[in-house]
Model the fold of this input.
Amino acid sequence: MGAGLVLAARPGWARPARIARARLPLIMIDPGHGGHDPGAIAPDGVFEKHITLASGFALRGALLATGRYRVNMTRERDVFVTLEGRVADAVAANADLFIALHCDHLPSPELRGASIFTLSGNASDGLAAKLANDENSADRFAGPGIAGVSPQVAGILASLETRATRVSAATLAQDIRTSFKGVVPLLPDPSRSANFAVLRDPSTPSTLLEMGCLTNPLDERLLTSPKHRALMAARLTSAIDRYFDDFAGSRDASAGGIPG
Ligand SMILES: [Zn+2]
Done:
């Protein structure tokens, strides 16, 4: 009976999702690497590609449970997908957000924590530039003749990128940072930028999340824990909720603080 009272107090609560199911925002989750591209490998042999896929499933489950989103994934199995193919999937599906999931590997095993990347022609720091280089080079696994993002295509995409897309991506990155704070360990300076191939779609706000460092034993323990992945998925989901609550539909290009 208590439940009946609650429902009566919120008339129409369930209706929007039923009316506009097809127009729910579409979130494209991109679990990094896969197939013959293992991504980073922890000192004890854990592959990044398995963590990114498991994390992708956790995030998909958390997003679908809200009833607010549709969710696609660029891969649902241990298969190789080119970087260009991942972006093309998001564009073809007209995704509202593109979220790439990765694990970091840093030169010092003491460094740990998640970081959130948005696209920039200028990397925020030397490590960010190196990381983008490593992640972009995933397409070397595609073999000769099946190139990833050609320099021409990359140049066109970069020049087409709209300021509005950039504002939205920066907003989402900030929402994730806020949502993770005190719950998911963060790098000392977790908002980073670099020229990642998978972030170059000009029409889809995109972010690349390094969920933690496989080179750090504490982070590796977290990343291989289903419980921690579920926690991270829940925090990501609340960041995405906040993003759509605050900014979808009112992307004000006059907002400041956009990374160069
Ligand atoms: Zn990666």
Q: What stands out?
A: The longest strand covers residues 186-194.
